[in-house]
Amino acid sequence: MSKGKSKLPEYEFVDVVQLQNRVFDLEQNFAEKDLIIGKHDIQISELEKLKSYKDSKISELKANIGGLTARFFDLKQSLFQKFGDEFQPLSAEGEKIIASSSGLADPTSQSSSERAARPAPDPNLDTFLSSASFSAR
């Protein structure tokens, strides 16, 4: 008798066909479970690729929103420089926002801590904004 393995008692009749069928069933079950594991591995891989793609898109969109914000502030400053007190943007509630004209017309008069840091222009954003698909929306 080998150690650690159970052995069928010698006095019982063993049906070889039953044992072969049982082995076949177990092998079939193993193959099915192996196939399921393979399918799950493929799904995991696809989900990881999708997550990576979405993460890169999120980063790209964050960069684009930074560029849009900078353009908004540049436009706002240009309008204020051009129209002065006539240009008074509305708040979310529809009330006029009172802007002080001291120092805003001349950005060089602002200290470096008062000037907003603006990201470099983004060529992808320029392409997107000028594309027909954007204007069709």
Describe the structure.
This protein is mainly α and 137 residues long. The chain is rod-shaped.
H/E element string? HHH
Our measurement of the CA-to-CA distance between the termini, rounded to an integer number of angstroms, reads 80 Å
Question: How would you state the average pLDDT, rounded?
Answer: 75
* Unreliable residue runs: 100-105, 110-116, 132-137
Largest sheet: none
Number of strands: 0
State the secondary-structure class: mainly alpha
Please sum up the structure shown.
With 137 residues, this protein is mainly alpha-helical.
Task: Please write out the topology.
Blueprint: H1 16-83, H2 123-130, H3 132-136
Characteristics:
mainly alpha; disordered C terminus; 137 residues
